[in-house]
Write a structure and sequence with these properties.
The chain is an alpha/beta fold. The protein has twelve helices and twelve strands. It is elongated, with a radius of gyration of 21 Å. The structure holds iron/sulfur cluster (SF4).
Length: about 350
Amino acid sequence: MDIRRINLNELSPEELRKELSPMGLREFRVRQLEKWMALGVPFGQMTDIPSAMRAELSEKYLDGSLKTAGKLVSAVDGTVKYLFDLHDGNLIESVLMKYKYGYSACVSTQAGCRMGCTFCASAGAGFGRDLTAREISGQIKAMNRDAGVNVGHVVLMGVGEPLDNYDNVVAFMREAHSPEGLNISYRKMSLSTCGLIPGIEKLMAEDIPVTLSVSLHSPFQDERARMMPVARKYRLDKLLEICNIYSSRTGRRVTYEYAVISGVNDTDAHAAELIRLLRGTLCHVNLIPVNPVEGTGYSRARREKIDSFRQRLEDGGLAATVRRAMGRDIEAACGQLRRQAME
Ligand code: SF4
């Protein structure tokens, strides 16, 4: 890889035209190229561009499109997990899920993650770098092309902490929302954070009312800080305070993600404290049957136990659901494919 070459995928349409002008291309060729670049198609797959011209492009420029390095399809529910290779050798994961309401993409925002949550496969696989806005949207474009679908919902819940890559993530959401881009409404985007309070505050000042999804995992400050090192800096009481402000400003309920870990955070005391903290706020608790990750020592709680925990929360006045496990047979938990590939 030659990092000195210009990455055509990172140029705006105007910049692209300017960059290509010395090649003296006819107008229809420029339009063809613009179309392919907007779709995030690799040079080699631009079928109506003559091969000599594709070779010239490869010679002069960096092809920053995402290349599929691995793909697993669930026999259970059709969920597809992709491993994409970035132009510099970094690997990222994305997941395509089919729901009744259409296709939803779970995308990565960083190659790896710095947050170090103890239950997460991404935490153990190291941090590569932030993704650019085009690399985030490129995952959706690549999945749309590969599966012949049109993704209508996006969750920023793949590998990485979105608010640790704030500018690129906001640029992505704006681009994905625009009619010239992916044309996905903000209401169909969900941003998942482990609780970076300054990032949530900044997000509130932007006019992008996406659903905020916060990894909670414990209603007790000390326990949460043991599971998620970031919680030592951004304390639970302050986090809940800012989440309440976010929901009242946007009118959207905050989702609290809660990975149920057997014998760790699924006790009656946990349910009671969750109710005490969250009752009366505009929120929803999403219980996640945790995927066991090698080396973490955590194990999945039994389904009956998760159901009774959910019932307890509902009885206490909270809206609570159990997340449907998608693609269990292909290990769709965040970061596992990447971790295996890197190992
Ligand atoms: S759970 Fe999310 S924030 Fe925590 S280490 Fe994994 S990818 Fe990073």
